[in-house]
Task: structure prediction
Amino acid sequence: MRVRLLGTGGAANEARHQAALLVEWGEASESGRILLDTGNGLDTVRLLIGAGCEPDLVRDIFVSHQHVDHVGGLEPLLLWSVIRALRAHGRPPDAETRVVADPRVLADIEHLFQATITAAPRLYGDRLRWIEAADGAAVEHGRDARTGLPVFSLYGATREPAPEMLDEVDVLLLDVQDVGVRFYTFISTLYYVLRAAHRHGVPVIVLDRPNPINGLTVEGPSIAPGYESFVGIVPMPVRHGMTVGELARYFNAEHGLDAELTVVEMQGWRREMWFDQTGLPWVATSPAMPHLSTATVYPGTCLVEGTNLSEGRGTTLPFEVVGAPWLDGYALAEALNRLALRGVRFRPTHFEPSAGKHAGAMCQGVQVHVTDRDALRPVEAGLYLVAACRAQAPEQFAFLPTSWEGRPPHFDLLAGGAAVREGLAAGTPVAELTAGWPAVAAAFARQRQPYLLYP
Result:
């Protein structure tokens, strides 16, 4: 028996490799290997290879405790056999491989690219993965400050990886935290990545992550023909109730993308879970998505983007406060609370956006307070909010005439067609506008069923 001390350093000790011990016994085909602790990041993978042991030959991994310097190298070890197989464009040896989606034990994706996937690694970013950008503002190609790797923007002149971006790429690894809403553009980037990967024969691995606003509730209108856009890539309800991995399977099959796809599933996630029930820390997915409370109301208050109201961008509560200089916040809150909408109350407030619509002007409006998130139907509540603002100030309120995509009104792209905007403008009751939504949700729930991965 041989014991190799791959690393003995602690979390704060940069002079030594972090904790990992390799135990080997036997000879040739009878040999065995176990690993006690995994260090952090990709370091232990490199050390195992340097010791002449391919990581996928380790039979068992024992973790002494869950400090990051003892378990932080777990994910690259588990992914190693998948990546080796896909480098040869084969099938992964174990289709049931599961990885805990926990930021406390995730390796740096930059290092994973650099060490395992290609001799000329590249990084690909939606609008906010690598470079902070304002909503709708194009992001140019660049270089990652930490690793020096080239970054190809998929939120600018190019939204689908071009052939030259995929030269010498063995596999595309996609790891994004979606917010569970059709018009959040990370899933549109997923669609384009899958399409490009099929065209250029590049396999795709999707590292799945939770739907933060649960995987049960489906709500809102779908997309009418001709209204597909970057904020609505395929017809589906506003709130789809799927994870990124499930959406990848759905896009791939239902929309004929046919990429060579592997989804690395989560362990322990259930459909009824909200993000704060996973035990994972919330990391802002974009500057305007700082909290889970933001994501909870976003399916409805994002509709405000298609109007001349402020949706709270440029404040500390984007999408949780809505207003304009010409509104009466107290009267608005009273009108909305009289509706007794499920799971929500409205509080009068005032705020001064530092950016976005009405920047530098004092706005009056409401703050959206969720009282029962399971009962809340945020898309419906968002329509009632827009309707109440229009009813209070019909001369000042307006729908924006176009969008940053330069096509139909932005409200129409968000809502999936012109019918909702036209109905609101004509004074049609919101209950009438939403009457068909349950049937849309039920149809989509049946369509998505074959692609769901979790109970």
Confidence is low (pLDDT under 50) at residues 89-121, 127-133. The two ends are 43 Å apart (CA to CA).
